[in-house]
User: What shape does this take?
Amino acid sequence: MEPKMTIADAAKVLNMGTKVLEKELTNRGLTFAKHQAGGYFTHTVAKEIFDLQVTPKIMAFQIVKGGTGKTSLVHETAVRASLYGLKVLCLDMDQQGNLTQSFDIDVEEVPVMVDLIAEGYPMSDAIIPVAPGIDLIGSRIENAIIDDVLTLKRLPLDRVYAEPLKKLKKHYDLIIIDCPPNLGQSVAAITLAADLVVAPVAPEKFALTGLNLTCNALAELEENFGTKIPFAIVVNKYEARTKLSQEALNFIEKNKQYKNKLMAKVRLSREFPSASTTCQSIYTAIRQSSAKQDIDDLTIKLIQYAKKGKTNKNKSYLESAQI
Ligand SMILES: Nc1ncnc2c1ncn2[C@@H]1O[C@H](COP(=O)(O)OP(=O)(O)O)[C@@H](O)[C@H]1O
Ligand SMILES: [Mg+2]
Assistant: This one.
């Protein structure tokens, strides 16, 4: 089932009424489906109607802690960005291959990053189209030896992924990377290729320690390679009522290093696990929910990050758009 952008959501972002948007779509011959819960359209129409102009960006979701939502947030923000018409490449760097599985893709017979590095193949050899507007470089367990390959081949960490990914930027608006929960060579090389590192923090034991470790590693890379790596925090699985959630948020908001980095909060929602077990995005359904709202909020922030300095004034109705 294809992910959907509801007319109601699109109209809100475009700052117009739903009827006006429906009329605009009809006038331009853009197809949308009618549904008792409201109309919707998919990626191809989204591309026409939002017409977003971005500077392509590489965003790496990483933190040294499993289960904080890296894979879920990469999958859902990629889908949501595709529903704003953007062309997205997802890169699964975790040897567990959860992101690959979440797109219901089998990469047994397809090269993954370790093959590309070991054999010197171009990254384009590993790209699989998975959904309208979304391509994937998948992962499987063989990626577990990637750090060894990088070391043995003495590949330069600041160039090994950065150079080929930079070339791929010509073909995509966003490249979103799901990192494994470690701080090895490969994660360092991804960090050095990224325009933005996003750390999902869940209000759980060790999560804040994980955040500290990730930030220290980032600072070290910045120093060693004389570069700046922008960084953002997403509090995931947030529950306003619980002590743990409040403590995590307080810690971030009071900490000198972190307080300006909080990008978004994604509430705890049962929609996520059920969506991942069926390998479907939460946006295949059109019913409104807190999960859809929160991922939308995060995706808009990521898109705005990529839109800095760009305007989309080609069409008059976009002048007051919220994105
Ligand atoms: N906001 C959320 N609310 C509820 N469950 C979530 C949320 N985000 C992620 N999950 C669930 O938490 C589990 C771990 O998430 P996952 O994305 O695999 O984490 P990671 O990639 O960091 O290990 C999965 O079952 C996922 O569906
Ligand atoms: Mg994961």
